[in-house]
Amino acid sequence: GVIGLRNLGNTCFLNSSLQCLSATIPLTDYFLGYDYRSEINKKNFLGTGGRLSTAYAELTKQMWLGSKSVVEPISFKKQLETFAPQFVGYHQHDAQELLAFLLDGIHEDLNRVKERPYIEDHDCDGSNNEEDAVENWKNYLRRNKSLIVDMFQGQIRNTCTCLTCGHVNIRFEPFMYLSLPITKTCKSIDGCMDLYLKEEKLEGADQYYCEKCKDHVDGTKKQDIWMLPPVLIVHLKRFKYNEYGKVGSKNDASIEHPVTDWDLKSRVKSSRGVYPTYDLYAVSNHMGGLSGGHYTAHTLNRFDDKWYEFNDRSYRSVDESIHKELFKSSYVLFYNR
């Protein structure tokens, strides 16, 4: 599992992401076995017919069972480009966007639901949050059931309140990762979490459409974490995008992150939820500016319990104190409970 990945030309974003996923033990164990083939859903038009998952499985085997010290992820990249033309060529890309596409693609490939039933989405009024959340999750699992859902997906509650009539609209939704905002006042990942969970006003161009008033009105929006997954992916929103969808600036703020025993009990609103503490096991880092930036990864090895730094083809063991140096570059963090 301690192996370098050759840079194929500005593919450090890919290499960093792959090292973090490789350190995700349940995912790696799954693909090192052969049971994934029996779960490939070739009928699912949202997937890739198993081609992306098979390419990822082959790469995982090269990284864990091969004899080379450096692996070339060229065949995996070719399959990725087939289904995600945005990654064609050798330009630098966003590691979080790559992770989102890859995990979603593997989920659709391995979705155990062969025939998806039509389920009408409905909003709630907040009178019975626990029952509504359970019902929403059951309905979601009737259409989406895979290793990816089991491992990475949790549930959030979105609450919109009309400031004209007081009507409350609640919607429960699944999430694959938490994208946390960063401001000048944020000093830690907990501070970013406070900002993410803070109530925001919906006014001006962002007005809320109230079903009761039948009009766009001022309102408030609040996000709450309802259920956390076994593996929690946290994305720090270091990049700001302009109106054309291009990266306009980067925030290099030092964001302190816990390495062990990150207690999220106070963050989970559901009374039926698991109140876990999380341990960090992988970080995708981005150093430098927008044009000349570079991605690396730091992961915890399951066999010797040591942290390793991966910089494309090169790697080395590092002390746990390295995390203090990563506070300015951490971009996507992987925690397990």
UniProtKB/TrEMBL annotation:
Pfam families: UCH. Signal peptide: none annotated. InterPro entries: Papain-like_cys_pep_sf, Peptidase_C19_UCH, Ub_carboxyl-term_hydrolase, USP, USP_CS. SUPFAM superfamilies: Cysteine proteinases. Residues 3-337 form the USP domain. One of its GO terms (biological process) is protein deubiquitination. One of its GO terms (molecular function) is cysteine-type deubiquitinase activity. Gene3D superfamilies: Cysteine proteinases. This is Cysteine proteinase. It comes from Fragilariopsis cylindrus CCMP1102.
